[in-house]
Amino acid sequence: MADHYEVLGVSRDASPDEIKKAYRRLARELHPDVNPGDDAAERFKSVTHAYDVLSDPDQRARYDMGGDSPFGGGGAAGFGSFGDIFETFFGAAGGGGSRGPRPRSRRERGQDALVRVTLDLGDVVFGVHRDIEVDTAVLCETCDGSCCQPNTQPVTCDICHGSGHVQQQVRSLLGNVVTNAPCRVCQGYGTTIPYPCATCQGQGRVRARRNVSLDIPAGVETGLRLQLPGSGEVGQAGGPNGDLYIEVSVKDHETFSREGDDLLATLEVSMPDAVLGTTTTIDSLDGTVDLEIRPGVQAGDVLTIKGRGITPLRGSQRGDLRVGVHVVTPTRLDHKERALIEDFAKRTKAPAPKLAEFHQGLFARLRDRLRNG
């Protein structure tokens, strides 16, 4: 095997810049596109291999150490090279020669994408359909993902002959060690693209905006992510699409709030209506509904309207609309109104205000009312 320094025409103490300049000069002279002869092609491979070894400080150090080895270049005490050992186990023993690593595929899976969608609380009750615009990578229509200009195609790499890897032989104390490294010319693909597509610059995909139709189910809540398999970015060289994730954010509502699958609201009731009772009509998120207020309703009482809440994410039984009562005490009374209230107080002989026995249910209702009020 020829000495790498002699192949490049440099001394053993040549600097990295000198080695690089020598390689560039020889590569321009021997490259198959410039010099198509068979001898030139073989020399070009030798020059490239020598440069691969000497341009890497670690490999060059091992090579230099192997050159001064007492075992010489003929292997380690009769064992031969590691390449011979692998050939014995994986090549000749299998009858098919050394297989080695396979070339990389240009086709890669596209990246996942994340889009945030803001919904109104009303959209959560029954679900909603949305058409959104996504800035993503799509298949290049010019080359249809081939990465090549129309009527052209990739060609087999002249250096690695389609394997995507080249063997590097390094001399060490143990003899000649043969390793496989990705081909620098084709980047490990095994093929090169002489005429890349001008539209996508040889990527097989371009950036573009496209519309995505979404059917957002009922019952979603802020922070929930919906997955749309195969709706993300197309991969390089027309590889499979990644996934699209939709992250939901639900806006606060002026009147209603959510607790699980129930809707909560506060209803202001005048003192006379609280005493005498009445029927009123309120606007829910899906239309009007009649609500009966019984006589003597108390502040903090919760009135429940069945089936006017949110449809659950998994299920069909809607939650309830729970309305907390807030009795409004008049603050401005004329002389006649005040006289009527005083007369009412005398007739009922109401006791003086005092602390009542703690009641968990009442406390919970008051807490809900204050939280949503």
Q: How would you characterize this protein structure?
A:
- The structure is a single chain.
- The protein has 373 residues and is α+β, with helices and mostly antiparallel strands.
- Among the domains are: 113-150 and 195-250, Urease metallochaperone UreE, N-terminal domain (HSP40/DNAj peptide-binding domain, Sandwich), CATH 2.60.260.20; 258-372, HSP40/DNAj peptide-binding domain (Sandwich), CATH 2.60.260.20.
- 26% of the residues lie in helices and 27% in strands.
- The strands form six sheets. The protein has a four-stranded mixed β-sheet with strand order 10-11-15-14. A three-stranded mixed β-sheet has the order 1-9-8. A two-stranded antiparallel sheet has the order 2-7.
- A hairpin with a 2-residue loop joins strand 12 and strand 13 (287-293).
- Helix 2 packs antiparallel against helix 3.
- It is rod-shaped, with a radius of gyration of 40 Å.
- The chain starts with a helix and ends with a helix.
- Residues 67-98 have low confidence and may be disordered.
Mean pLDDT, nearest integer?
81
Largest sheet: 4 strands, mixed
Quickly give the CATH architecture of the domain at 258-372: Sandwich
Any idea of the CATH topology of the domain at 258-372? HSP40/DNAj peptide-binding domain
- Series of H and E elements: HHHHHEHEEEEEEEEEEHEEEEHH
The rounded Rg comes to 40 Å
Identify low-pLDDT runs.
67-98
Helix content: 25-40%
Strand content: 25-35%
If helices are DSSP runs of H or I spanning 4 or more residues, what is the number of helices? 9
Main-sheet strand order equals: 10-11-15-14
Task: Please give the number of β-strands.
Answer: 15
